[in-house]
Design a protein that fits this description.
With 281 residues, this protein is mostly helical. It folds into 2 domains: 120 residues, no CATH class; 96 residues, no CATH class. The chain is built from 13 helices and no strands. Helix 3 packs antiparallel against helix 5 and helix 7 runs antiparallel to helix 8. The longest helix has 31 residues. It is flat, with a radius of gyration of 30 Å. 25% of the residues are buried. The C terminus is likely disordered.
């Protein structure tokens, strides 16, 4: 007599091991140096850089190297490896966006006559600036303004420089006699601004150039903001070691501050001037 087979239950055919939930990969954080992230920053980040871009890149990379070497002292303060890495990435983003802006700007072609006028405008810009450096050397406020004016390059920057320099020399007309700047130079600057205005509008209206400039400026200020945080953290971490704390200072900005202080010390005080005047009377 054949033995009847007991049917196996469906449950017995299933694996007794519980299935592991599918592993989820951690979401990659957004790249703060991407074009999308830079464009999402507030409008205040679109202001022009206040120091030369090449120097800003060099200082950001140098700061990242210093921070990596001091990572064990910075990490407890909240400045971790990711923040340090972002500083280096902002330096690279600044270099990338600067090159993109230069390339886009070059695409906005100038006529031969406009290129000739631009060359003349750049030479006149340098002459008006050099005259101010000399004649106003004891005026710390004027020197700071000249430093600001001297940053940047290209058509738009050159025309803005001439406008600012004309305004400066209007305020300090009495000092022009001690320079090589003539009334003809100032008149010519106004003419060059007018003649190159059309080319400047073409460059400003070019969508690619305008977007590239916006990205460059935003990369600069976002990197500057992060650098400030790392520098302040570094100076705090090494508050009891002044030599190391001093390494967390921007050399360029520090040198500018020292020069401004030196000029202020060279400027005679109002009381001293009054005393000398009274003595000579």
């Amino acid at each position: 007599m054949a033995k009847s087979k007991t049917p196996r239950s469906t449950a017995s055919t299933r694996s007794t091991k519980a299935r592991k939930p599918a592993s989820r990969k951690a979401a990659t954080p957004p790249d703060p140096t991407s074009d999308a992230a830079l464009l999402a920053l507030p409008a205040s980040y679109a202001a022009p850089p206040d120091i030369p871009v090449a120097i800003a890149i060099r200082e950001l990379l140098s700061l990242a190297r210093l921070a990596r070497a001091c990572a064990d002292r910075l990490a407890p303060l909240g400045i971790d490896a990711d923040a340090i890495d972002r500083a280096a990435r902002f330096a690279r983003a600044l270099g990338r966006t600067q090159k993109a802006w230069e390339a886009a700007r070059a695409e906005v072609a100038l006529a031969a006559s406009e290129r000739k006028l631009l060359t003349e405008a750049e030479a006149l810009d340098a002459k008006l600036l050099a005259g101010g450096r000399w004649a106003l050397r004891r005026d710390a406020t004027a020197q700071a303004e000249l430093s600001r004016i001297s940053e940047g390059s290209g058509l738009l920057d050159t025309l803005q420089d001439l406008r600012d320099l004309l305004a400066l020399w209007e305020r300090h007309a009495e000092h022009r006699a001690h320079t090589r700047i003539t009334a003809k130079d100032l008149a010519r600057a106004a003419v060059l601004i007018e003649k190159l205005e059309g080319a400047a509008h073409r460059e400003a209206d070019d969508v690619a150039a305008a977007r590239a400039l916006m990205l460059r400026n935003r990369a600069f200020w976002a990197g500057h903001e992060l650098a400030q945080e790392i520098r302040e953290g570094g100076r705090y971490a090494f508050g009891d070691e002044p030599t190391l704390a001093a390494k967390f200072v921007s050399r360029y900005r520090s040198a500018n501050r020292r020069r401004a202080k030196a000029r202020r010390r060279q400027t005679p005080s109002a009381s001293a001037t009054e005393t000398e005047t009274a003595a000579s009377a």
